[in-house]
Amino acid sequence: MIYTIAILLSLVGYFVIGHLAGRRVKGLDDYLVAGRNAPTFFILGTLVASYLSTSAFLGETGFAYQGYPFVMLIFAAVSTSGCLLGALVFGRYLRRSGARTVPEFFGKRFASRRVQAIAGLTTIIGLGAYLLGVMQGAGIMFSELTGMPYWVGLVLVWATYTGFILYSGSPGVMLTDTIMFVIFSLAAVGGSLYVIQDLGGWSGVVEGLLIQKDKPGIALWHGVIEGPEASFSSPARR
Question: What chemistry does it catalyse, as a reaction equation (predicted)?
């Protein structure tokens, strides 16, 4: 019951915060890019929160638990490096162009409405698939924590976030994302310190991974490559 109340209160809280942020939106520039005057901390919060969504907390964590924690770390390092290089190399041109969105930038860059339409369609398809994964993960988490039907959680989460996002635009998204970023950062750091201390420090964590029997071989750098549950069991897929 306590999980249900906490989740419902958080959904109401995010909706109210998004509504208050939306009252400051006065034009399209405010709605799409927060008037180009967003604090650095808000930009950091929304980027991290968007990157570390349910796809990371559920999907990637589950992949690591299946026997591939170090493989997942390698994927994360490569992906994070790509995001950093993309921002440093490409971001300055996007800002210099004055475009509000990436599709608009490509439309200006190539002086073509067709290129802009293709870029917009690519963005919609890519973000649509991402949002489907995020909503599915949120629905699963809601169902597991509260015991309520999966579809109920899916509808509640979708309605809440869609409602304040459509109304408040980027200011509301950045504010709520930053709040989420602070909450799960504190929870992750605090939880990790507690788990590490309970296991006897880093040496206890490593030793526990090496001797545990539920997932034998999970501490190997290449992950589990033998047995019926191995995701990469054949030589062609290693």
Answer: L-proline(in) + Na(+)(in) = L-proline(out) + Na(+)(out)
